[in-house]
Design brief:
about 375 residues; homotetramer; alpha+beta; five-stranded antiparallel beta sheet
């Protein structure tokens, strides 16, 4: 299979580029019987939309979405759902000076060399704008998962060197929308916001860490040996631009504890088998064990920074300088939470059908 | 597609379980024209084989492999290559007391509940022994990649709290086979070995970190948006039992640096465009950029420990105790290096065909 | 993988329904470097467009296509190509009386029962209009195949009981556009046209046989054992609505000849190994042998006929009558030639990449 | 995906060649909970086994099968099932004179040119012996389908010019095992047998037609647009060596009837919606409609005939003669019935899971 489609039973195919005519996605394998309107998708898109606060890019895209297939009287009918967002605020000329001059930290050079022809304005299809497709697919997945009480929450736990305190999941869900950084520790959130505004003034950028929690996943998701649930989640998250690391449960910390500390002891609570700790992060041997799934992703600082940088001119192979003048996020972490939730929800939805928890044809 | 097959153009299907009749793998999509003998695979299998040093499990398996299809006069002919290892030293009775009593940190409970019937001796197909299949596939990939000068090296950089010093790749390759822990820092290696023997005496276990370096990957591997090279590598590595985290390049450290530090500046050396630093770990936007690919994986301590542990009896849902008496590795890191190399080589091989660097039908 | 996508290296995902907002397709795996405009696709769509002659349905759809992604300055850039046709002349009310009353010979009852919710106007996604997607994908395939001198020609050889004489391929290509029935035997074509107009008056319909010839396919396409070239072609053709049979080479006639007659003798002509006869139809053991590929498909008469028919009311399971008043083709054969060419070209294109004749990333 | 695997939810990967070490198959996606022994598979293999009557090849293979993974105490446990048949009666030297001399009607030349290296004894992997894999997979599918009352019956209806009378399905099932030709019309069967013995004496071969009937398939199998049930069945059947045509329902005859004759009228019988006729062959718009599925395949005469034939010597591109001295079936139709049943059962099983009729993980 080609690479703009992902999933096996619940699949998404995305298309479009940053400064092209449109972006969109086709979701195939969505069971019939789900109520679905433009507005459902619009609400999620608005969360990742640029230009909504001082700490995001000032590109003014309404990102208005329209479903053009797959529903009948606003109910999914088992046919592929296509939704489209037309680009409105492209300013391609901002990128004229970048033609043939690959931006450090960006994939420009890779696309240019791999395909020969490169839609360079705004990074073309390599732009973060392609995650509009993820959000379209993720919204549909989320609506179905919510009916099964499965809730995915992504929140920022670190920006640069500022870390949030550990907070209870209930409080996280209450707090994440209270500040533009989507950090539930409101004191840390304030500091994070300030540090983002500060780095923006300096023309530089920051990275951070996002935690994703998936509650109420039933025991039994994940297909060994090669489609383990953590394998598929790791891939979906690493596929998001700027992500440089993925952890499940204790993650890298597990390398420094002993087995007797790491192992999660089984016991019974309310007639349900659970574990006392959750160091495994809800997955054992690639199969969900019924505990909350806990993931962390490392997000690198936005590569688009406004100072001068050295690079190579691909036309003559000479060293040259570039200055990036487009509109960019000084820190992508807050907006990436929406994309991470979407990516994760699509994986969980796919595995819910694959493991027989959701009927493949109709709800 | 079902889950015991992975890859798109170069695929592997594995089968078999720890204490069943046999384990093996079928590789499909291997171009014709490769010299391949049992001995080629045997050499790699011997690296992951148990019972070769004091720090590994004492299960005595020769793991003798036999190719039963796919070659003609010891040359691959474009048909699927199947290779088999028959189990010899099964001691299934060691596991009789574990029936219906899931071992903490293991997938027993997940398999039992998901499938109803569970081949519990030795963890059945969830056992690390299923990675024999990985090594079969990885060996074939490696032989072809080596012709393209692509070299994958996995080495241990941390066991428990003992970390190796940073060492040059040339020295790593020279040193890793000098000690049983496969750590190139020979001083740290000695300490690691001692700490493994120490924890073994205590009936406990250790985890660690393995770094994987892939040299000479050409620019252009990786298929955006959903089969990015780092996405596929993360999945392949996370799919290995005991892996709890994957990093590329700076990994989680990238969350705390600024964009101006993170970005790798392009320049020219010997008429080749390279980057001054390699914080991105050789992949930008999911496509290899020609620099070495640098990955790290977090390996949890072996869940099989010899002390008493609490668990639940699945027959009556009562709390019970278990004691694991099988033969196990006190630390899986040294042996996991071979499996990680195999997993990574299969991904690179698959993408070499996908990106048109290797002809799909014949070498 | 879900079912609205087909192909492995050159894939097409289609979406949309007869009376919905739009229909379209996303082509993934098209190498970069192909000149491609809306007009290229429009020309092919115009061939399958309804309302162009007295013998086709009178639905007046302009079927205007617009590419919204995948090209940069009218050249493919390796990203997914999406093209859309908005529906204009829907008359959904024509179908109000058919709700819950499945039309004989149509898939209404299957969709209704399978998915619960059924976009019944015009047959929804089961309508022949969904082949707009095929033609979008087929056009792109055709443009690339033509560069390799591969030419696909579909022509009508039978309508009802009227059969065309056997005609040389050169003459076929000259004649097929001279009459609306797309039959190259101009005398038979005239009779076919009359018989279609005649059956239309009677409110009934006709079927026929279409032959597809693919010239200049190189030896080596087709991947045994389960993706043989004839297997993939048979599937692609049988997947077209109304097709009830597929033959390759001698087809069903091969059941009544002896092996000594059937076998195509090899010999040399102009330093090329060819066969004296072509009973195998250009494929041996699932692999193209360099001879023209010869296929035939059986097309059933259009199930939409205007007389009264008995059926079952799905609301109360009573026998009822229906009368179909929409606009329909009295014989689908002439228009199906365009769709068959598209379907076949997509398969050949997919296999050209798979067998290494076309680079997967760039032309 | 590579080409030695087929299916999406219930998949089979086959391997091995005619004169190699072994042949076999791995079935993935078989739910846990099915009783399965070597003997189950052996019984089906014995039906396709050579050397069982005067009208089949005299190669004496016991084709003894052994399951080496996927069952625990003779019950499937959700892991991949691998079964192997070792070759015993290879006489590779019979083929020495055929090296580089492609046999007319065989795929020798295609494999030789495509892969460069060709396992030519007995046609290597292109041999009909590779259908041992089909039968392994088909047996497992059949065992599960039978629990759902789905019964597949393949029987010979024509050999050369001898056609059987139309016979009721009940009688077909009673009669097919009464004669070696697997034709239920016992009078025709006798004539067929004689004509096969006669053609064998002449050193020539015969083809024929096999009909496949699948009873009790529920309404709703088949996934439009590109995995229609008839599309998948056509592919599976065309993928069998020697098959040159596939029909469903009226097949090619549907091209010459009118719509009013072709359409199958719906009515009610025993509270079930059925059709009065079954011209569509049980599938409408790619989805099963609950009626018996009726297919026909055209089988070409065995290309291995014993007289002298002209061909080309691939070493020097000169015309040369060959004489095939191996042991071959004068007519493959009787043995192909078992393979056709297997191929069809795997498709139906795959679609039963895909449409949610069978749970993907456990029975």
């Amino acid at each position: 299979m080609t690479s703009n489609t992902t999933g096996k039973q619940f699949t998404i195919t995305t298309f479009g580029s940053s400064h092209g005519i449109a972006l969109g996605a086709t979701i195939d394998g969505c069971p019939s019987g789900l109520q679905l309107t433009n507005q459902d998708i619009q609400e999620e898109l608005d969360k990742r939309r640029p230009g909504t606060s001082k700490i995001t890019t000032q590109r003014k895209e309404k990102d208005q979405v329209k479903i053009i297939s797959g529903t009948f009287n606003n109910i999914t009918d088992g046919t592929p759902i296509t939704a489209i967002v037309y680009n409105k605020d492209q300013k391609s000329h901002n990128y004229d000076n970048l033609k043939n001059k690959p931006r450090p930290g960006h994939a420009d050079i890779c696309w240019q060399k791999k395909y020969g022809i490169y839609d360079y304005p705004g990074g073309g299809r390599a732009s973060g704008r392609n995650t509009i497709g993820h959000v379209i697919g993720g919204t549909i997945a989320k609506k179905i998962l919510n009916k099964h009480n499965i809730i995915t929450t992504a929140h920022v736990i670190q920006i640069g060197n500022i870390k949030s305190e550990s907070i209870d999941i209930k409080e996280i869900k209450e707090n994440i929308n209270k500040t533009p950084v989507r950090c539930a520790d409101l004191i840390a959130a304030k500091k994070m916001e300030e540090s983002i505004l500060d780095i923006k003034k300096k023309g530089d950028s920051l990275g951070g860490i996002v935690e994703i929690i998936i509650e109420n996943v039933p025991l039994g998701l994940g297909q060994p040996i090669f489609d383990k649930l953590d394998g598929d989640l790791a891939k979906a998250l690493m596929n998001i631009g700027s992500v440089k690391g993925v952890e499940i449960g204790l993650g890298f910390k597990s390398s420094a504890v002993t087995g007797s500390k790491m192992n999660d002891e089984f016991y019974i609570e309310n007639n349900k088998i659970i574990t006392k700790t959750n160091n495994s992060g809800g997955i054992l041997g690639g199969i969900s064990n019924g505990m909350p799934i806990m993931l962390k992703i490392a997000v690198k600082p936005t590569p688009s920074i406004s100072g001068k940088q050295n690079t190579v001119d691909l036309e003559n192979n000479n060293i040259t300088e570039i200055e990036i003048v487009g509109r960019h996020d000084p820190c992508i972490c807050p907006r990436i939470t929406t994309v991470a939730e979407a990516a994760v929800n699509m994986v969980i939805m796919d595995h819910m059908i694959r493991a027989g928890f959701i009927h493949p044809d109709k709800l």
